[in-house]
Amino acid sequence: MKNSLFKRAIATAAAVPLALTQCLTYANAVSTDFVKAPAQNVQEGESLKLENLLYIPAEETVSTWNQTLSAAIASIGAEDGEVDVAKFRDDILSKAGAYKEAAAYALDQCIIPNKVNYEITGENDVVITGKISEPDLNLKIANTPADALHRIADSYNAPALKNVDYSTVKIGGDFKITIGTSALASGKKVAVTFAYTTADGTYGIGELPAYAIKKIEEIRKIDEAAIEKEVAADKVDEAKAKYNAKIDLIIDKLKKAERAVDKTLKADKNATYSDVSGLISDTNGWLKANGINRQLPGTASEIAAKEFIVKAYDTAIKTIDSKGVVDISAADLGGFADSIKNVTFSLANGKAEGIGTFDDAEQADVKAWVEKNGYAFVDSYKKITAKVDFSGIKSVDAGSVEVEIERILVTDTTTTTQVTTTSTETTSTTSTESTSTTTEETTTTDTTSTTTETTSTSTTSETTSSTSETSSTTSETTSTSTDTTSTSTDTTSTSTETTPVVTTVFTKVYATANTENAFYLNTETEFDKAQLSNVILHTVRIEAAVKEDGTIDETTKKETEIEAKDITADVSFGSATPANTYEKTNTSFKYKVPVSANGSVLKDVDGNDFTVTVFIGVKGDINLDNMANSVDASQALAFYAKTSTQGRGVYDVQLSESNLVLTPKSVYDEFAAFLGDVHHVSGAVVDRFATKDKRLIDANDASNILAFYAKRMNSANDQMTDAEIWEDILA
Predict the structure, then answer these.
(1) Which of 207, 514, 687, 722 could be a cystine partner for 203, CB 3.0 to 4.6 Å?
(2) How far apart are CA 100 and CA 93, in angstroms?
(3) Which CATH number, 2.40.50.320, 2.60.40.3810, 2.40.160.50, 3.40.50.300, labels domain 494-617?
(4) Lipoprotein: present as a keyword of the record (predicted)?
(5) 630-730, what's its fold?
(6) How far apart, in whole angstroms, are the C-alpha atoms of residue 293 and residue 542?
(7) Which pLDDT score, from 0 to 100, does residue 167 have?
(8) Of the candidate ranges 269-273, 471-475, 673-677, 727-731, the one whose mean pLDDT is the lowest
(9) What Å distances lie between residue 670 and 34, 189, 586, CA to CA?
C-alpha cells in the first residue's frame, strides 16, 4: 500500500468535479433577464456560450450569473450515468513515476471495475460516487509494503512471508463528491464536500495522507510480527531493519503530502500582479521552493490546452451535459483568464481570494445609457472576485467556491467653488475756512455820494443826497467740507471643476426570521426546524461611491430591496446534529447552530452566520453536571415532594441545585426539567418546547434515572450507548 493507491485513485474520481469547479471559478453569467427571457441574450435553441455568461445589461452593474447557470443546469434536468475513468488511465500512469505499477493496479483492479457514477439530482446538485475495492496486500507490487516483505522472504528463506493474513486491515471504501450547485438558485457560493467512507470511519480529502499512514503502520505491525515468527532468531533484527527502511520511505512520501496540506492551510500571502501570468509564475516559485516537482505552463491558455485538462474538462461537460446546453471549451476559459488584469491575490487560514478586472464588452451600450441619463461617461470595466474556501479540507465539508461579477462605472461629477469679495467703504472729509476782515471808514460831505456794499453773495448800490458814506464790509469766504466715499462692489466668482467619480453597485443577501430557543438530548440525531418561522431571504441592491483609498463612501450609500423571499421550507441545519454538536466540556450547555438553505449557511444583516440558540444535555441530568446519577434522582424526588405534598407551585420550587439556576423561573431550571422528565404517562405527548408547568417530574423519573445509573455503571453494558440503555429501561 502506498501514497498513489489513494492519491491517484482520488485524482481519477475527482476529474469531473475539478473541471466543473474550474468552470464555476471563471464562469460569470448574464442578468436575471436571461432566466426570464432568454431571447434577449441567448436565442431559443442556442447553446450557452462564455460571451453570454459574461454579459451584463448596460443599465445593470451586478451580475446574476448564478441564476443563469442554475437555469442552464435545470434545463439539463435530473439524470445520471457513468464517468468513463478509463479515458484518464494512461495520463495518470504517465505522471505516477516510481509508483506506476501501483497506480495501474489501483485503477485496473480497485476502481475502474466498480465504475464511477454521476448524478444531477432533482435539486440540481452534482454528485459523483465510486468504490475502491479492498486491495490484495500480499501482491508484490513495486514500492509497496508487500514488495518490501517479499524481498525479506527471498533473502531469508521465509516463503510464508508471501502469504500473510491481513484480514484485520480494511482499506477499501466508498467515496462521494457533492457539488452543491442547487445553491445557485439563490446565492453565488457553491459548497463542495468529499467523503471517503471506510470500515473505520469517514475521511475528508485532506485527511487521506494521515489515513494512509495509519494503514501502513497497521500493515507494518503485522509484517514485523510475521518476520519475528518466520525468520531465524539471529537474523530477525537485521531483517526488520531492512524491511523498515523500505516502509519508512513510503511513510516519508505520505508525510510529505500531509505536510503539504498543513502548509497550505497555514500559508499567509498577499500579492498583486499585472495579469494572471504573474500569479502563475509566483505559484511555480512556491512549488519549487517547497520541493514539489511540478511546474505550471506560463499562461492560463497554455494550462487549458494541456491534453489532460482538455480531456478531463470535455469529459465532464459532455458526460453531464448530454443535451449540449453549455458550449464553453477549456480554451475559452483559459483565454478569459488571460484577459484578467490588475490581479490581487490573498491567502490566509485556508481561504484564498482573487480579484481582477477585465474589459467591459458592453461599454458602448453603457456609454449611451449613462449619457442618456444626463451624466458624462468616463469609463467602465468589469471586476471579478473569486473566493475559494478550503479550510475544511480535513473534514467532509471540503470547501466552497464563490464568484461575484460587477461592473465598475466611472462618470463625471461637477464641483462648484464660490469666491466672494467683501465690500469696503472709505470716507475722507476735508474742511477749509477762510475769513478776511476790512476796516470800515465813513466820510460826510455836502455832496451826494454812492455807497457801495459788497459781499461775496450780492452787491447793493444806494444813492443819497448831501451825504456820501462809504462802507467797506467784511468779506468772508468759506470752503465747505466735502465728504468723499469710495465704495467697492461685492463680486462673486464661481469656478467649475470636473472630478471623475467611481461608483460601485453590489448586492447584499441576508436572512431574518422568528426564532425560538429549544432543548435537546445529546443522543438526538437532528435539530428541530420548528425553532424557525417566517424565514425571509432579503436581496438588497447597494450603490455607493468609492473613495480614493478604495473604501466605500458611506455618506453616498443607497440601499434598495430587490427581493424578499420566504424560504422557511428550505432551511436546514446542514450536517449539524445535537449528537455531533454536544461537547461534554461545555458547562453552559448553550450552543449557536448555523442555519442553512439550499446548501449554504445563511447570513444575518451584519454578515455573520445566522444562528439559533439550543441547549443540549444528558438525559436525566437534573443537577446539570453532564451525567445522570443518584444525585439527579434525589433532586427529582425533592421537587416532587415539595410540589405534591406541600402544595407549592412548580414556579415556586427550584428543581435543579445547579449554580446555573438562579430562580425557579430560570431558563436553566426549565432545561433541567426537560432533561429530568424521562418518564411520560402512556399516551402523553410532551415536546421539547413544553414549559416546566406542563411537565410531571415525579418518583417515576427518579426511579428511571437510578435504573439508568445502575446499568451505566455495570461493565457488562460498556458496549451499549446511552440511548440504547434508556430505550431498554423505558421499554
Answers:
(1) 207
(2) 5
(3) 2.60.40.3810
(4) no
(5) Type 1 dockerin domain (1.10.1330)
(6) 46
(7) 93
(8) 471-475
(9) 53, 39, 18
